[in-house]
Specification:
This protein is α/β, with parallel strands linked by helices. Helix content is 43%, strand content 14%. InterPro entries: Glyco_trans_1 (IPR001296).
């Protein structure tokens, strides 16, 4: 079966209440116990601030691709009549989006969301109730309509509408026997279509050792300085705060001196003021009754574990989650003898009549003074709590859906002749807008926003692989990074993965992302004027990959990448190296800060792909620990670059003096360095070493290939003014790939003297030309070249000169290692390996 879980109660205002907890925890349990069934989570994009939390909550349980977001034009809350048209459109939009997923069942965790927020829940436009299953919590508003419905006509209208929708569901999953009976008695729902799945609490609520410092900090903040009686939960009138406070006031004075009454949890200011006035009216001291305000789950766990007694005096509950939370933490708990609470506590002696202040007081006093009774409460708490499990609830749901599916398998064939949902969806929305008085008034309804959300929800049969080449589009500096970008881009354009469209994109510091259609056309040899660089679209299931390196653009668009993740796009960044952080003294002063900001953004993505295992091993040291330990932790992967220049869009052309130099070099001992001149590359040390060799009479040549980089002005002056410049010392700036291949062909040995690298492409290129290699002994060179090269570890030029002299002797004797058998990848192989990583769901 394919089961869609509508997660809106975990996004609406209910996310701060028991219904929100019910939604998250039960959904997790359904996912854990899904067996062979497919589970999809559907989120409301009109409440975007809640999307990251839900995605994080299911990290490791469900692939992010199975968490989908639909969108509509907001606001749509039912309490504002001006939202009526948008709300209707949003209802159609939600149903049509879910229908496209072709679910066997849609599970709704609460049908009563959306009066004061942008949740919408209906049944019957694109799918009938025969596929909808609803959690049923209680009928409290209907039973106590004088409190919950009559004072607010807007809410009453909303509630009755949603009640009618609920009745369309094929099954109700009640959270208690009490709730199940209320559905029968007050909703007139058939009893044989209701199942009691019970309820449970999150795993965090358990008996645990509390760190003394944590306890001290919280108690100091809350002004708790003696043992306490605890209540937790909402502050509705039915929760009976006034009765509890009065019952506490009637305790003997010596007990009140021994125990605070702590009322835990946030509440509206008007409620708190009312309760505080009641405290004063009863003559209680300011330090006797403590109001905590909003607390974190960890703080609740601490209070539950440390309370002497937990009291739950509610007049009416659908289940009674707070008392089970307390019992799960080992608290001695007493509570009301009404509705569902006896099902939770499970011991008649621990119950009292919540309508009687004396009964509450007497039961509290009994628990505080009768040691045997108190000991039994403590023992029974954990034993009883153990019986409640979200996994048990989920298994009951799955079994009920399997049974329902089996009983009506023959009905499925009828759906094949139905109108295509997307066309029906668009037509009905158009009719709704056209028939409305607001439909002709653009000021009342933003049709453009609706059209945009429709396009997003409709998605596309072919997913996009959005390839960020922002730097390459602006300027191809022919650097090593840009060679990588060109090579991967060419391979993926020529061999796109099945089911994906390769879409190069770019952005600037002042402009959002656009399709790089004109650049791509020119790159492939087509007429660039035919393409339009339109703003990009995206949808759930697309992939974004920042192949290029453009720190300024990346930092500016940080929020955009988060939006992509929230919308179900997998976001990846390519990490070339960490050198400006590891070796800041080799870079311009601002480089460390600029790269640090880039890495902070990149590390907030789904995955960081490194160009070597060495970079991947170093990366965690430079990434905030929170990104490595968070629920949706950063995935770090690695691959190796390719090295066939012919597949990297090589540049061509030779300067006028090329043939003369190549002829001069023939038959000589030629050492080659290929890299931009910058401090970490080791050029200065190598030049000093060769100066010593030349003084000793060596006629070896040193050939430097690469443009001038940063912080090497002094070195450049030395080279240009050197006595050997143009004789045994040659510097070829900005030469073409064609010329470089000819230089490789006449070289004896490549020197890779860099103090740090992300990969080391020249080693591979040298191996392809079967020329020997001398490399500094750093981890990434070992990773790439293994034992196929000669390594040196020279701290100064004298040591390096000796190593060069020794190598030349070994080479003449045929004893120097040669890279003939050194493994390397073509760009086709490298691009294929990278694609395998990108198309795999992050861990």
């Amino acid at each position: 079966m394919r089961i869609v879980l509508d997660m809106q109660p975990a996004q609406s205002h209910s996310r701060f209440r028991g219904i929100g907890r019910h939604t998250i925890d039960l959904a997790k349990a359904i996912v854990r116990n899904r067996k062979e069934h497919e589970i999809l989570l559907v989120l409301n994009g009109m409440m975007p601030e809640t999307v990251p939390f839900i995605r994080d909550s299911f990290a490791g349980l469900l692939p992010q691709r199975q968490i989908l977001v639909w969108k509509a034009a907001a606001p749509v809350k039912a309490s504002n009549s001006a939202n009526q048209l948008r709300r209707k459109v949003a209802q159609y939009t939600r149903e049509a989006f879910i229908q496209q997923l072709e679910p066997d069942f849609i599970y709704v965790f609460s049908m009563f969301e959306g009066h004061e927020d942008d949740a919408v829940q209906t049944i019957g436009t694109f799918f009938d109730g025969q596929r909808v299953v609803v959690s049923f919590h209680d009928a409290i508003p209907l039973i106590q309509s004088d409190i919950y419905l009559e004072p607010d006509r807007s809410y009453k209208h909303f509630y009755m509408e949603q009640l009618a929708e609920t009745r369309k569901a094929c099954l109700l999953m009640a959270i208690s026997e009490s709730a199940m009976q209320e559905a029968v008695d007050y909703f007139q729902y058939p009893k044989d279509r209701i199942l009691n799945i019970s309820s449970a609490v999150a795993d965090i609520f358990k008996k645990k050792d509390i760190a003394p410092e944590d306890e001290k900090t919280l108690f100091r903040r809350l002004a708790i300085h003696r043992p306490y009686i605890l209540y937790s939960g909402a502050s509705d009138e039915r929760k009976n705060h006034l009765g509890l406070i009065e019952a506490y006031a009637r305790l003997p004075a010596h007990l009140r001196e021994d125990y605070h009454l702590v009322l835990a949890g946030g509440m509206p200011e008007i409620h708190r003021n009312r309760f505080e006035e009641h405290v004063k009216k009863l003559g209680l001291g300011a330090d006797e009754v403590i109001f905590t305000g909003r607390l974190t789950d960890d703080e609740f766990v601490l209070l539950y574990n440390r309370c002497h007694l937990y009291v739950f005096p509610s007049l009416h509950e659908g289940f009674g989650l707070p008392v089970l939370e307390a019992m799960s933490c080992g608290a001695a708990a007493i509570g009301s003898n009404t509705t569902s609470i006896p099902e939770v506590i499970g011991w008649e002696r621990a119950l009292f009549d919540p309508h009687s202040v004396d009964a509450i007081c007497h039961k509290m006093q009994e628990a505080l003074t009768d040691a045997d009774f108190y000991r039994a409460l403590k023992q029974r708490a954990l034993e009883r709590a153990f019986l409640f499990s979200w996994d048990k609830s989920a298994c009951r749901i799955i079994a009920a859906l399997e049974q329902e599916q089996a009983s009506r398998a023959a009905d499925r064939a009828q759906a094949s002749n139905a109108e295509a949902p997307q066309s029906r969806w668009v037509r009905q929305i158009a009719q709704q807008v056209a028939s409305s008085a607001q439909g002709s008034d653009p000021a009342c309804f933003n049709l453009a926003a609706t059209a945009q959300t429709l396009a997003y929800n409709a998605g596309a049969e072919t997913r996009q692989l959005l390839l960020d080449i922002s730097e390459l589009v602006q300027k191809d500096a022919r650097t090593g990074i840009q060679r990588v970008v060109r090579s991967i881009l060419r391979e993926w354009l020529q061999n796109p993965p099945a089911g994906y469209q390769i879409e190069p994109v770019y952005a600037t510091a002042s402009q959002g992302y656009r399709y790089a259609r004109q650049y791509t056309a020119a790159f492939q040899g087509h007429d660039a004027s035919q393409g339009q660089d339109d703003p990009i679209d995206w949808a759930h299931g697309d992939i974004f990959f920042a192949l290029d390196f453009q720190p300024e653009v990346t930092v500016v668009h940080q929020q955009f990448y988060q939006q992509l993740r929230d919308d179900g796009v997998i976001v990846n960044f390519l990490l070339y190296d960490l050198l400006s952080l590891q070796m800041p003294h080799y870079f311009a002063p601002e480089a460390e800060d600029n790269f640090g900001r880039w890495l902070e953004v990149a590390a907030a993505a789904d995955r960081l792909v490194c160009i070597s295992q060495a970079v991947a091993a170093d990366a965690p040291e430079w990434i905030a620990p929170s990104r490595l330990s968070s629920p949706r932790a950063l995935d770090i992967a690695w691959f190796h670059l390719g090295a066939d220049v012919a597949s990297s869009s090589p540049s061509t052309g030779l300067p006028d003096d090329a043939h003369r130099l190549l002829a001069t070099l023939q038959g000589q001992t030629n050492f080659l360095m290929v890299s931009t001149l910058e401090p970490r590359k080791g050029h200065a040390q190598v030049l000093k070493a060769f100066e010593q060799l030349w003084r000793e009479g060596s006629d070896a040549n040193l050939i430097l290939v690469g443009k001038q980089g940063w912080m090497v002005d002094g070195l450049v002056r030395r080279i240009r003014a050197h006595a050997q410049f143009g004789k045994h010392l040659h510097w070829l700036e900005g030469i073409s790939d064609e010329y470089l291949q000819k230089i490789y062909a006449c070289s004896t040995c490549l020197i890779a003297a860099s103090y740090g690298e992300g990969f080391g492409l020249p080693l591979i290129e040298a191996a392809q030309h079967r020329i020997a290699i001398m490399a500094r002994d750093i981890p990434v060179f070992r990773e790439i070249a293994g034992e196929h090269v000669s390594y040196f570890d020279a701290a100064d030029a004298r040591t390096l000169a000796a190593a060069l002299q020794q190598w030349m002797g070994q080479y003449q004797e045929g004893k120097a290692p040669l890279p003939d058998a050194m493994p390397w990848l073509s760009w086709q192989q490298s691009a294929r390996d990278l694609l395998t990583i990108i198309l795999t769901d992050p861990r």
